[in-house]
Design a protein that fits this description.
- By secondary structure, the chain is α+β, with helices and mostly antiparallel strands.
- It has two domains: about 1-150, Up-down Bundle (Four Helix Bundle (Hemerythrin (Met), subunit A)); about 160-433, paralog of FGE (formylglycine-generating enzyme) (Alpha-Beta Complex).
- About 30% of the residues lie in helices and about 15% in strands.
- The protein has nine helices and 14 strands.
- Strands 12-11-10-13 form a four-stranded mixed sheet. A three-stranded antiparallel sheet has the order 1-4-14, with helices on one face.
- Helix 1 packs parallel to helix 5, helix 3 packs parallel to helix 4 (about 90-110) and helix 3 runs antiparallel to helix 5 (about 125-150).
- The termini are far apart.
- The structure holds fe (ii) ion.
- The site of fe (ii) ion has 5 residues, from helix 3 and helix 5.
- Fe (ii) ion binds near residues 47, 51 and 134.
Length: about 425
């Protein structure tokens, strides 16, 4: 086996261990609809196997469908999440047997595949990378479901590294063109391609994500009830939903508490705020006299090495994420406090760009110039337009295999169950460029 095949086999093992850990619960927990925003966990479990079957066994391996009668049930576009608990889904035991049967054949296909072939599904192991990243994305989705379930004892926790105070509040990113997106990364999604030059004028960006302490100042200042700070649609959403604080926050005894995986604890001031919608992030930024960064600004601050004239795979360089660089891979079930990862700083000095919390940007999710849908339109193309906002950087719940400087995530501006926060930016004056 080549190194690449060994790496793929290890990544497949790791992601499957993760999925099985998150679904190591009573059947009643797995089949229940915990929120109308989410699928039952047992749907995610069978769906990742079905997706792997579609793209690795059938599209790449040319193998006949194992259970064609279940395809429609696990097609994410055929059934909205709120309705999936009402389908005649595979039971947890059947789902585990099905995905394990798929996996056994996938390893045979991997063994036989020519990953140097020019066919885009084979080159660099693309179809395997698609399956690995997709399953990790569902791992993060499962964590959001487990958080919404309010049940304790289902999710492992850990201790993130300590925060660090001091240092500048913001860093300058000089003006000029930079190379956004990628042509080179074999596992990059269609929406990250092609690489293209973008002219970005000089701007300042927060060195660290906005913390709970800072966000609580916005709340205390009446930020939620002052329409001056809000996008009009966001203000309507806020009023109709009676939103007065981030999701999972409650006020008691003169302080803020949060519920995290079924346990209630004081809101830690130094942690990046999470579970805020795009509308809340946008309102905070306006209240602070700033704005959200565009996704081009975010990507330039994250990975552009001006001295070398090239984009880095990660803020700290091209080496894989280690525990000293970024809060990724669910080492703890929460973001690390601000300043926890100085070794993960980007060339411009921004920290925690990768990991801890997804970061909302001001940009709509749109195709890059020259975009070509691959391998199917429903991954990215059907979401393009003025409906979804771009998020960047991954969260504590994101696995290192499923994030990089160029990675683009997107969601509706009202969504708060995702592990999303933000940082703010402002234009630089002409004397600062
Ligand atoms: Fe999916």
């Amino acid at each position: 086996m080549t190194d690449l095949k060994e790496r793929i086999a290890a990544a497949l093992r790791e992601v499957r261990d993760r999925s099985l850990t998150y679904t190591d619960a009573d059947d009643a927990v797995l089949v229940r609809r915990h929120s109308r925003l989410m699928s039952p966990l047992v749907w995610d479990l069978a769906h990742v196997g079905n997706y792997e079957e579609l793209w690795v066994l059938r599209a790449l391996g040319g193998i006949e469908p194992l259970r064609p009668e279940i395809d429609q049930m696990y097609d994410a576009f055929a059934h909205p999440r709120a309705e999936r608990a009402g389908l005649p889904l595979l039971t947890p035991r059947e789902a585990r047997a099905y995905i394990s049967g798929v996996r056994g054949r996938v390893l045979d296909v991997l063994d036989a595949a020519d990953l140097g072939a020019p066919d885009p599904l084979r080159a660099g192991g693309f179809a395997f990378g698609l399956a690995v990243q997709h399953e990790h994305q569902h791992g993060e989705t499962m964590l959001a479901t487990l958080q919404l379930s309010g049940r304790a004892g289902l999710v492992r926790d850990g201790e993130p590294p300590p925060g660090r105070s001091g240092g500048p509040a913001e860093v300058l990113v000089p003006g000029g063109p930079f190379l956004a997106g990628t042509d080179a990364l074999p596992w990059a999604y269609d929406n990250e391609r092609p690489a293209h030059l973008v002219e970005v004028p000089a701007f300042w960006i927060d060195r660290l994500p906005v913390t709970n302490e800072r966000f609580a100042e916005f709340v205390a200042d009446g930020g939620y009830t002052d329409p001056r700070w809000w996008d009009p649609a966001g203000y309507r959403w806020r009023r109709e939903g009676e939103v007065t604080a981030p999701l999972f926050w409650t006020r008691d005894g003169g302080r803020w508490w949060r519920t995290r995986f079924g346990r209630t604890e004081p809101v830690p001031p130094e942690e990046p705020v999470q579970h805020v919608s795009w509308y809340e992030a946008d309102a905070y930024a306006r209240w602070a006299g700033r704005r959200l960064p565009t996704e081009a600004e975010w990507e330039k601050a994250c990975g552009w090495d001006r001295a070398a004239g090239r984009a880095l795979l990660y803020p700290w360089g091209d080496g894989p994420p280690g525990p000293q660089h970024a809060g990724l891979g669910h080492r703890a079930a929460r973001p690390a406090p601000a300043g926890a990862y100085p070794a993960g700083a980007s060339p411009c000095g921004a920290e925690q760009m990768i990991g801890d919390v997804w970061e909302w940007t001001s940009s709509w999710f749109r195709p890059y110039p020259g975009f070509r849908a691959f391998p199917y339109r429903e991954y990215s193309e059907v979401f393009f337009g003025r409906t979804h906002r771009v998020l960047r950087g991954g969260s504590w719940a994101t696995h290192p295999d499923a994030v990089r400087t160029t990675f683009r995530n997107w969601d509706l501006p009202v969504r708060r169950q995702i592990f999303a926060g933000f940082r703010t930016a402002r234009a630089a004056g002409p004397e600062e460029c």
